[in-house]
Amino acid sequence: MEHTTVIVLAAGQGKRMNTKVRKQYLLIKDKPVLFYTLDCLEKSFIDDIVLVVGEGEQEYCQKEIIEKYGFHKIRAVVTGGKERYHSVYQGLQAISWKNDIVYIHDGARPFLSEDMLQRAYDAVKESGACVLGMPVKDTVKIADESGFVKDTPNRAFVWQIQTPQVFWHDLVMDCYTRLMEQEKILLENGVKITDDAMVIEYFSDTPVKLVEGSYRNIKITTPEDLEIASVFVTK
Questions:
Q1: CA-CA-CA-CA torsion sign (93, 95, 100, 102)
Q2: Residues 110-158: pLDDT tens digits?
């Protein structure tokens, strides 16, 4: 198999949780949210992990996450940046070893599975770039600037995007380098980068393949999400 590294993003503040504790450290059935993500990766075929954390949290993660739960695949712990894409770039720069495929995953998505990892691996080997997601269940409306319905896209072609998002290492490194070089211009033009696929879309001609994730692959963002997660863990 190709050598694989996962960048796990765990630097988010989680303001919508209305708690002083960052969401990735909140507990689901007596273990932190981040544990479940790292536990899946530790037991999978993935070779290495880069953990991106908030400023000043390296020591805490080392003692309370890595050492406490015996994670051995984490080769680097680095500090994230102001925006998500800054954190991804920091993670990419930390990969100093020979690597072929990069997974980028939100640490606040605790229900990753080996099947999802494998589907993404198979897809990226074929296409060079893929993202996990699921077809939307609800009708989606596009709004205009005044808050009125502008368009209703065909639901059959609308997906809600998840992570991991997976790419050949050289491709994603090149695109992120170009993003950082042109960040000021993009911001001046009102372009807001919200996921890794957008970076590939902007700075390469490589099409991004949509790969089935899971409706359980939720991101812990609000207190309600934490309640749902507790049910999933119980099952």
A1: negative
A2: 999 999 999 999 999 999 999 999 999 999 999 999 999 999 999 999 9
- 31, 68, 117, 186, 211 from 193: Cα distances, Å: 32, 35, 24, 9, 21
Q: How many domains does the chain have?
A: 1
Domain that holds residue 114: 4-234
Backbone angles phi, psi at 234, to 5 degrees: -60, -40
Look at the pTM and tell me if it is higher than 0.85. yes
Please give the structure tokens belonging to residue 157. Answer: 């072609």
Tell me which residue of 63, 102, 56 sits closest to 80, measured CA to CA. 56
At 155, is the secondary structure helix, strand, or coil?
helix
The CATH number for 137's domain is: 3.90.550.10
DSSP 206: P
Distances (CA, A) of 108 to 25, 37, 143: 9, 8, 29
